[in-house]
Specification:
The chain has ten helices and no strands. By secondary structure, it is mostly helical. α4 runs antiparallel to α5, α5 packs antiparallel against α7 and α9 crosses α10.
Length: about 220
């Protein structure tokens, strides 16, 4: 047996341990941002040395979570871009985007708390930059086409919608809200200026297509 063949099971085991640690960190840090690495190791079912072998400190673990969130976000946006073209009405494009992003935000909502602790607002802003640009572009197009009223500049309205999403994700953290994204998407359309009945109709029409994509379902 060659050394490379002998090492392969070890590599697979290491990858499995790393994935399990990150999944545990997403769950436990979402419950309590002050969870220690020792507590995470126990929750993940690995010894302390194994966790520290992958992540030598809290900062390394949080950066790995931030990078993972960034990759999932980019992947979800790329998948959405393949289905939503520039000819798609802006209200449908916004509903599609919110429905697509909600599972990503739900999965990584612990980053909101960590931003206030030790991840850093700048790092979170870096992760969210592509999403912010996309929403601003949709709102800009919608205002130009008369789909959304122009009561606020697109970038300002985008920031307001993001703040609403953050607030709703925090309500998920507290257990006050459970949603598959449809109520949030409806609320976002209404906040963007779409009449309530029309917003509900658009979301009901778009939601099945987004569910079929299955983005971020891990």
């Amino acid at each position: 047996m060659t050394k490379s063949v002998a090492r392969e099971p070890q590599r697979r085991n290491a990858r499995s341990n790393r994935a399990r640690i990150l999944a545990t960190a997403r769950r436990e840090l979402g419950r309590n941002p002050d969870t220690t690495l020792e507590e995470l190791a126990r929750a993940a079912g690995v010894v302390r040395r194994t966790l520290f072998g992958h992540f030598p400190g809290r900062a390394a673990l949080l950066e790995a979570l931030a990078e993972e969130a960034s990759e999932v976000l980019r992947s979800a946006m790329a998948a959405g871009a393949e289905r939503v073209g520039p000819a798609e009405p802006a209200e449908r494009a916004l509903a599609h985007f919110v429905l697509l992003m909600w599972p990503v935000g739900d999965r990584y909502r612990m980053l909101l708390a960590l931003a206030r602790h030790d991840l850093g607002v700048e790092r979170v802003a870096e992760i969210l930059a592509p999403a912010r640009a996309e929403v601003t572009a949709i709102l800009e197009r919608g205002q130009r086409d008369g789909v959304f009223p122009g009561h606020l500049p697109p970038a300002v309205l985008s920031a307001g919608l993001e703040a609403m999403t953050v607030a709703l994700l925090e309500q998920v953290n507290t257990g006050a809200l459970e949603d598959d994204g449809t109520r949030v998407a409806t609320a976002q359309l209404i906040a963007a200026g779409v009449p309530e009945e029309r917003a509900r109709t658009v979301v009901e029409d778009v939601a099945p297509t987004v569910t079929a994509e299955g983005v971020a379902d891990e």
